Amino acid sequence: MENSDGNRLHQQLIFAGCQRQLLRAGGPAFTGISPTAPRNLPVRTFAAVKPQRKNQKEDKEKEVKKERRVIDDSDSRKPYGFTGWAPVDDVYVPRFYPRTTYGAAESVDMLKTFQRLDFTPLKQPIFVDLRLNMKLEKKKKVDAFVSTVHLPHPFKTEMNKVLVFTADANQAQFALESGAVFAGGVELIQPILDDEISADFYITVPDMLQKLVPLKNKLRKKFPKSKRGAVGITILKMLEMFKTGHEYMVENDCYVRTQIAMLDMTEEQILANLETVLLDVCSQRPADMGPFIERAIIASQTSEALWFRSEDLLQKPTEQQQEEEKAVLTI
């Protein structure tokens, strides 16, 4: 009896345990927490997408631009960032003093002095290096240009080779007699493309300009243009200009580097050539836009570079001179 009662009790315990497991697996888990009570579930946050600006121009205008601070040290004992205004001895460190800028006549005289002290050849070229302010109003700028100027004192020993395009046989013969190397019409196009003939300058009459389109890629900057004075009806005048003319161009967007004279020329001749080049350069931009030349350097082939004031040769005419010119024009 005792064994049967013990077995029965053991079976009841096992059945109760199995029933408890079934309730846990199949039915809802009953806990002390109410199912309607709010629970603090983890929430993942994301960065908000930055909206795109629709009116970027208006935002740029609202931004306050930092103005460049200009220090006026003209009345101070020494310039800002330097040891003094000028060295007191012949031996000094150049970076401790502001760069010396000379007058145009003084710089030419110094070049001649350097030649005598250094025992260098007297017959050597003089070069000028100009940095231009190519900016115009409304974010525009002056296009890089090529110009030919007639120097009052040419320094070249040989004349430039000039080719003339014209369909008129009489004009072609006249051009050859006036000093042109070649003269003719469309028959010269193919020899130029084949490199059989070439010249330093190419000029043409207006009627031939449309027929010379195949030469644009070949000649490039030498292609005749009216802005350079290479297109016109006065063949003799153009020939005289380009046979002895001096050509210069803008390099690297804002620099003009060209030869202006020889060191064995007189100081007056060098200054006259320099003034002619500077005036022609400044004529490429409106005068009311301010100074066109920001920096001017002159040097010979063997000397050091000298910064000079280009405005010395670009003085504006006085009121008296303007009145005299008006009087001459009225007469």
UniProtKB/TrEMBL annotation:
GO terms for cellular component: ribonucleoprotein complex; ribosome. Residues 50-74 are annotated as: Disordered. Keywords: Ribonucleoprotein, Ribosomal protein. It holds the Pfam family Ribosomal_L1. InterPro entries: Ribosomal_uL1-like (IPR023674), Ribosomal_uL1/biogenesis (IPR028364), Ribosomal_uL1_3-a/b-sand (IPR016095). Residues 55-74 have a biased composition (Basic and acidic residues). The keyword Magnesium does not apply. Belongs to the universal ribosomal protein uL1 family. This is 39S ribosomal protein L1, mitochondrial. It comes from Pogonophryne albipinna.
